[in-house]
Every structure is written in structure tokens, then in C-alpha cells.
Design a protein that fits this description.
- The chain is of the alpha+beta class.
- Among the domains are: 362 residues, 7 Propeller (Methylamine Dehydrogenase, Chain H); 44 residues, no CATH class.
- 31% of the residues lie in helices and 28% in strands.
- The protein has 14 helices and 34 strands.
- The protein has a five-stranded antiparallel sheet with strand order 1-2-29-28-27, with no helix packed on it.
- The two termini are 85 Å apart.
- Keywords: Coiled coil, Nucleus, Repeat, WD repeat.
- Pfam families: Beta-prop_NOL10_N, NOL10_2nd, NUC153.
Length: 687
């Protein structure tokens, strides 16, 4: 028995585990149970609860005693007796069953809609009668007051077959091209049919007139959903007198109140697969909707997900056992799954032992497989020095990493960092001591990191409280805000006052910091002495404050100059250190081989020559024309005239470059002299 948990909801899979072949003797079965732990632990709730290949539909009789399922291959129906926990009977059919309905409280009256347009009736003894409808049927519903069967098919008509008279009645003409599903309300017997155009048509069986039309296709389109094509109706279910749930082929479930044309809730399965089944769970007000991939349970009032299940195989149908927490599914596999969720309700009477079994499992939880393994990424393996184990049996690849034995992981971690546990222990002890200190009567303590910034914030808060009016609300403090808590705890967030950016952006920070440093010393002395009462700092007269403000304004320029001078001195020291390092480094000579018949001038010339040699003659002539060393012109006779200019020697080039450099230096000197004169004229200080 497998146990899974999602959103703290325990789901017990009762059909998990291997099944034993029927042809094995009892002696061999007992021997296998002794050897294999999985076979010994499995729970076979109902004997042979499976189909030969796949199961398509599953239903429970109204008295709760019989579970009926249809499947292939060959097409058949199997009836299981819950009182005996075994199969009651099995009947083979001529063609596959699209859907079926149990008309009586037990298995004595069953109707099958088959894929070859036949409708087959079975009684308690077996096959009773067989008839045919005009089009291929897709779904049908039974109207109990009039004993009418309503069939929807691949046509615009809804066929009616009266079982009391034994004949077809006038069909209902809908506006749709095809009808997919139908249902009859159990309270007021309103008939609803879901169309291929994404609409739901509601009919009154008493007057055989249409009383309502819902356009569900437009309601499925929301801002969060992406829909390819027009959604059709694939599932339909009534709940009580006023509620109706509609499932679409694009994976949305819409909950309607019949008094409104707008849905109350639109729930998207996010898979884009048609909704196969919709069930209502009344105890917790849940809706159980399923597509071929997943079963989702969600609250019908809020739309919040309660839990979900993803079976191994595709789902064809879902059946909720009445007044219990048991759920059964028909799958694309031989086994039909049975799930039990104690949160939804108690176990049925015929398997009440499940309640005791689940309680024992909750009291003694077993460790899962992943408790003995550790998930690590490739980067973690490189840090541990175990990257060479990739591809070996010690690592099992999974998603973006690997599973490894937890014992091996702890050993490798201890070898990489042997003092990790001691550091962890010290940190835990420190945290415990801090927690106990927090419970004492605390003084105004500053944090360990960014003390000056914290003191500045405290001063600003005190000033705001003094100037703020009574009616104004208190603004939030950065020191008490959890978002900025790390800034005063983690030393990585310490403000570096010696950095160039800080000193240039805050030129007067030195004067302000001197005042704060005095306060910090006073506070630290108080904390060391552990005084119970804090002394308030003495106030200053208004004259002193005004004089300080004027001094700050006058000292602004001097402070900027000091900061600039200090930065220049630091840059000079750094340059001298770099120059010393460059002198100490020894450059190793590199040797290059020159081809025979070539003269070496420079590396640039050789590279240019190689590029020119690769080009064609026409490209080389064009390049010479651009450089001005070659000029081609037409003569009066009709021939071409080419004139060449000799390239300048290396000495001439060097001389020209020196002259250019000399001119540029003279220009810069003239500009700097003019800049200084303009500053003197304005009366600005210069350095």
C-alpha cells in the first residue's frame, strides 16, 4: 500500500503492488508472499478487481453493494460484490460500451450504449433486449418520472425512448450540430445537453421546450488561460437544484448557478486535456474533476486546491463511493485503482478495517526511500571533490542533479570541512544565548553591524517624533522592519567609509561621524557597565547650534579639498607599487622563425603582407588607389596610364609622428593655461 501526501492530505493507494497470476497454486502464492516483501504488504481489497486490457467506465449501484465496470478486450462487463469482496459475474458483449447506466437499486436492470449505435438492455439473468438509434450515440440519461431514455448523438437531435411503452417518441431538435454529453437534474428533472459548439441547452421534459441556453465557450476565455480553438462541452453534472458544473475539451471546469448566465468559478487544469468526469463531494463542499492526466479536488466556493492525484496510467472515468472517502478510477491499464482518503470520510462498511489500518500507519510512520539519500547538484559534487563519481553506481542521475547515499555525503563533507560541526554548534549556542537575552529587560542597544547608520536612524526618528503632530500616524522604522533586518546583522552589508565613492558622495561625513562616534562611545560604556537606567545626552543651546551650522557651510569647500588631496595621494602610492611590481617581474624572451628569402621589419608588416598576398590583383590595386600610391587614368589613344608613388621610409614616418605628438602637447598646454586664467577671473579655487 502506497501512501502519498499533498497539502497535508493523506492518500492511500489500495491497488498498488504486484498482482499474482490466477493459475498459480495456493502453495506457490504462499511461497511468493514469504519471499517478496511487496507482495506480503499489498492489500487486495476486492479479488481480481481488474480488466483484461483496459477499463472505460465504472459505477456503483444505489444500494452500494455492487461495483460494475466495463472494459476490453473482449468487450465485457464485470460485477463485483462488496459483501463477498469478489467478482459476482462477468458478461461478454458484441461491441465496445460507450457508457452504461444502472436503472435499479442493484444489478437487475442495466442499459448499455454501444459504439455501433445499439442500445442493449440486461436483466438479472443476462441479455434482455437490443435496439438501435439512428446516429452514433455519445451519452444518455434516464428520466425516472416518465421512464424515458434521452440519447445524445453525433446529430442535432436528442432521441427519446420510452421504456414503459417500448417505443421511440418525438425527438428534441437542438441548435447544435452535435451533442456530446447530457444530464438530468435529480431535484426538478431539468434536462441539459452539452454541444460541440461550447453551449449548454436546457429543456423541460414536461413541455419538451427549451428553457435556457448557456454559452460556456466565451466564459472559458480569461486573462490567465490560453485556448487553441473553440472549446466543446465534454462533461456535465448537476448538484442540487441550482448548481451545475460544466467541463470543456480544453481543460476548464465552470461552476454555474442556474439563475445566472455567468459562471461562479472557472477552474483550469492547466493540461489542455478534455475533462472526463466531474463529481461532487458534499461533506467538504468539494468538486472532483478529472482529465486523462490528473484528478483535482478543489473547493466549490473559493476554487482553492484541496489535493490532487496523478495516477501512473491515463484516466478514463472516476467514481466516488457514496458517503465515504473511497475513490475508484477506470484506467488505460488492466488494474482499476482504488484510493482511500480518511479526510473525505470514513471507509465503507464492507471494508471498515481500513480505518484501523490507516490509524496505525499514522501512529508509526515509515521512513520513505528518499530519507536515506541526499540530492546533490554537479556544483555540490565539485565542492565535495566527488565529481569523478559521475557515471558510477554510487550516484543515481535525477533531473538536474544526482541522488547519493547520505552516509557517503556526510563522510565527504567531514573530510572537506572537518570543523563544520563545531562552527555550527557555536552558532547555535550563540543564537540560544541571544534568544534568552531578548527576554530580559533591554536597554537601547545598537546592532553589531552599521552602528553609525543605526544611530543616525534613531536620531532622525527622535527628531520626527518631536516635530510630528499628535494626529499624524507613526512611520515604519527601518530598524524594526524585517526586510532590512539583515543589513544590521550580516557583516557583508557593512558600509565601507574608506571607499572612494563614499568619501566623494559624503564630503562632510567626517564631521558628522565625529559627533556620532562620541555618542557611540557613551553607549558602549553604558552597555559594558550594564546600567539599568540610561542617561539622556545633555542638550545644547540654540547659539551653539547656529554657530555649528555656519561652520559646516564654511568648511564645505575645505572638506572637499582634503578629500581630493587624500585620494590623489592614495593614487600616487598605488602607481608606485604597481611600478615596483612591474620592475620585479621578469619577461621571458619569445623566438619566432622567419621564412627563407624574407626580411623581418615588424610583426605588423608581416601580418599585413600575409593578408595582401591572399587577396587578388584587382583588390590589391584598389587598395593602392585608396592609399594614394597608385593612380590609373585613360589616355587619348585609348590605353591605360598608371603612376606609382614610393612609400615613405621608416625614419620619415617616425619623424612625422614625433612632430604630430609635439603639436598635440602644445595644444593641451595652451588649453590648460586658458582654463586656469578663467578660474582666476571667476574667483574659484583651483588645485
Amino acid at each position: 500500500m502506497q501512501v502519498s501526501s499533498l497539502n497535508e492530505v493523506k492518500i492511500y493507494s489500495l491497488s498498488a503492488g504486484r498482482s499474482l497470476p490466477e493459475w498459480l497454486s495456493d502453495r506457490k502464492k504462499r511461497a511468493l508472499q514469504k519471499k517478496d516483501v511487496d507482495i506480503r504488504r499489498r492489500i487486495e481489497l476486492i479479488q481480481d478487481f481488474e480488466m483484461p486490457t483496459i477499463s472505460t467506465k465504472i459505477k456503483v449501484s444505489r444500494d452500494g453493494q455492487y461495483i460494475m465496470a466495463v472494459g476490453t478486450y473482449k468487450p465485457r462487463i464485470r460485477c463485483f460484490d462488496t459483501y463477498q469482496l469478489s467478482q459476482k459475474f462477468e458478461r461478454c458483449l458484441d461491441s465496445e460500451v460507450v457508457t452504461f447506466e444502472i436503472l435499479s437499486d442493484d444489478y437487475s436492470k442495466i442499459v448499455f450504449l454501444q459504439c455501433d449505435r445499439f442500445v442493449e438492455f440486461h436483466s438479472q439473468h443476462g441479455h434482455y433486449y437490443r435496439t438501435r438509434i439512428p446516429k452514433f450515440g455519445r451519452d444518455f440519461s434516464y428520466h425516472y418520472p416518465s421512464c424515458d431514455l434521452y440519447f445524445v448523438a453525433s446529430s442535432s437531435e436528442v432521441y427519446r425512448l420510452n421504456l414503459e411503452q417500448g417505443r421511440f417518441l418525438n425527438s428534441l431538435q437542438t441548435e447544435a450540430s452535435e451533442n456530446n454529453v447530457c444530464d438530468i437534474n435529480p431535484t426538478h428533472f431539468l434536462f441539459a445537453a452539452g454541444t460541440a459548439e461550447g453551449k449548454v441547452e436546457c429543456w423541460d421534459p414536461r413541455t419538451r421546450n427549451r428553457v435556457g441556453l448557456l454559452d460556456c465557450a466565451l466564459s472559458t476565455v480569461t486573462a490567465d488561460t490560453e485556448i487553441d480553438g473553440l472549446p466543446s462541452i465534454s462533461a456535465l453534472k448537476f448538484n442540487g437544484a441550482l448548481n451545475m458544473a460544466v467541463g470543456t475539451s480544453t481543460g476548464q471546469v465552470l461552476l454555474y448557478d442556474l439563475r445566472s448566465s455567468n459562471p461562479l468559478i472557472v477552474k483550469d487544469h492547466q493540461y489542455g486535456l478534455p475533462i472526463k468526469s466531474i463529481q461532487f463531494q458534499h461533506q467538504l463542499d468539494l468538486i472532483i474533476s478529472a482529465d486523462s492526466r490528473i484528478i483535482k479536488m478543489w473547493n466549490k466556493d473559493t476554487g482553492k486546491i484541496f489535493t490532487s492525484m496523478e495516477p501512473e496510467h491515463d484516466i478514463n472515468d472516476v467514481c466516488l463511493y457514496p458517503n465515504s472517502g473511497m475513490l475508484m478510477t477506470a484506467n488505460e491499464a488492466p488494474k482499476m485503482n482504488i484510493y482511500y482518503m480518511p479526510v473525505l470520510g470514513p471507509a465503507p462498511k464492507w471494508c471498515s478495517f481500513l480505518d484501523n489500518l490507516t490509524e496505525e500507519l499514522e501512529e508509526n510512520p515509515e521512513s520513505t526511500v528518499y530519507d536515506d539519500y541526499k540530492f546533490v547538484t554537479r556544483k555540490d559534487l565539485e565542492n565535495l571533490g566527488l565529481a569523478h563519481l559521475i557515471g558510477s553506481s554510487l550516484l543515481r542521475a535525477y533531473m538536474h542533479g544526482f541522488f547519493m547515499d547520505i552516509r557517503l555525503y556526510h563522510k565527504a563533507k567531514m573530510m572537506v570541512n572537518p570543523f563544520a560541526y563545531e562552527e555550527y554548534r557555536r552558532e547555535k549556542i550563540r543564537q540560544k544565548i541571544e534568544e534568552t537575552r531578548a527576554q530580559r529587560v533591554q536597554l537601547k542597544k545598537l546592532p553589531k553591524v552599521n552602528k553609525e547608520l543605526a544611530l543616525k536612524l534613531i536620531e532622525e526618528e527622535e527628531e520626527q517624533q518631536a516635530t510630528r503632530k499628535r494626529k499624524q500616524k507613526n512611520l515604519p522604522s527601518l530598524l524594526k522592519d524585517d526586510r532590512f533586518k539583515v543589513m544590521f546583522e550580516n557583516p557583508d552589508f557593512q558600509v565601507d567609509e574608506q571607499s572612494e565613492e563614499f568619501r566623494l558622495l559624503n564630503p562632510l561625513v567626517s564631521k558628522i561621524s565625529e559627533k556620532r562616534k562620541k555618542k557611540l562611545k557613551i553607549l558602549e560604556e553604558k552597555e559594558a557597565q550594564e546600567q539599568e537606567e540610561e542617561e539622556e545626552p545633555e542638550g545644547k543651546p540654540s547659539d551653539a547650534e547656529s554657530s555649528e551650522s555656519s561652520d559646516d557651510e564654511k568648511g564645505w569647500v575645505e572638506e572637499v579639498r582634503k578629500q581630493r588631496k587624500l585620494l590623489r595621494q592614495e593614487e600616487k602610492v598605488k602607481r608606485q607599487e604597481r611600478f615596483k611590481e612591474d620592475q620585479q617581474t621578469l619577461l621571458k624572451p619569445q623566438f619566432f622563425e622567419i621564412k627563407e628569402g624574407e626580411e623581418f621589419r615588424s610583426f605588423k608588416d608581416s601580418a599585413k603582407k600575409q593578408k595582401l598576398m591572399k587577396k587578388t590583383l584587382g583588390d590589391r590595386l584598389k587598395l593602392e588607389e585608396k592609399l594614394g600610391t597608385l593612380s590609373v587614368s585613360d589616355t587619348t589613344v585609348g590605353s591605360k596610364q598608371a603612376t606609382f608613388k614610393l612609400k615613405k621610409s621608416e625614419q620619415q614616418k617616425k619623424q612625422q609622428e614625433a612632430e604630430k605628438q609635439h603639436r598635440q602637447e602644445r595644444k593641451t598646454l595652451r588649453r590648460s593655461a586658458g582654463h586656469l586664467k578663467s578660474k582666476r577671473g571667476r574667483g574659484q579655487p583651483f588645485h
